[in-house]
C-alpha cells in the first residue's frame, strides 16, 4: 500500500488491508489535521481493501467531519463501489460523481 500527496489530495494505491491499516491511518489523520477544505482520496490505483481498510476510511471520514472538513472519494473502482453499496456506506461517504448502480458488476 502507498499513499502519495498532501493535505488536500492523496492517491491511495495497492492494498488497504489489516497489514497496512496502521500506516494508512497515520497518513490520513495527518492529512486531515494539517489541511482545510475537502480532502480528496483518489482510489484509482487501489487494488483492494478489506473491512479493516474500510474502517480506516470511515475513521478518516469521521475525523474530517470533526475538523470541519469533508473526505471525498474519487475514482472508486467498481468492485469497491459494490462493497460501499452493500454496506450502504455510499449514503454516508462523499463520492465524486456518485455511484452508477446500474453499471456495477453483478456478483
UniProtKB/TrEMBL annotation:
Residues 1-107 form the STAS domain. It comes from the Bacteria. Signal peptide: none annotated. GO terms for molecular function: anti-sigma factor antagonist activity. CDD domains: STAS_anti-anti-sigma_factors. Belongs to the anti-sigma-factor antagonist family. This is Anti-sigma factor antagonist. It comes from Streptomyces odorifer. The lineage of its organism: Bacteria, Bacillati, Actinomycetota, Actinomycetes, Kitasatosporales.
Amino acid at each position: 500500500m502507498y499513499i502519495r500527496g498532501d493535505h488536500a489530495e492523496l492517491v491511495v494505491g495497492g492494498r488497504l488491508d489489516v497489514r497496512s491499516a496502521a500506516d494508512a491511518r497515520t497518513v490520513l489523520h495527518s492529512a486531515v489535521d494539517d489541511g482545510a477544505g475537502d480532502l480528496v482520496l483518489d482510489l484509482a490505483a487501489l487494488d483492494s481493501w478489506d473491512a479493516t481498510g474500510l474502517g480506516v476510511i470511515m475513521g478518516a471520514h469521521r475525523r474530517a467531519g470533526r475538523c470541519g472538513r469533508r473526505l471525498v472519494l474519487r475514482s472508486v473502482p467498481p468492485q469497491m463501489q459494490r462493497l460501499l453499496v452493500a454496506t450502504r456506506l455510499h449514503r454516508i461517504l462523499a463520492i465524486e460523481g456518485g455511484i452508477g448502480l446500474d453499471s456495477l458488476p453483478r456478483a
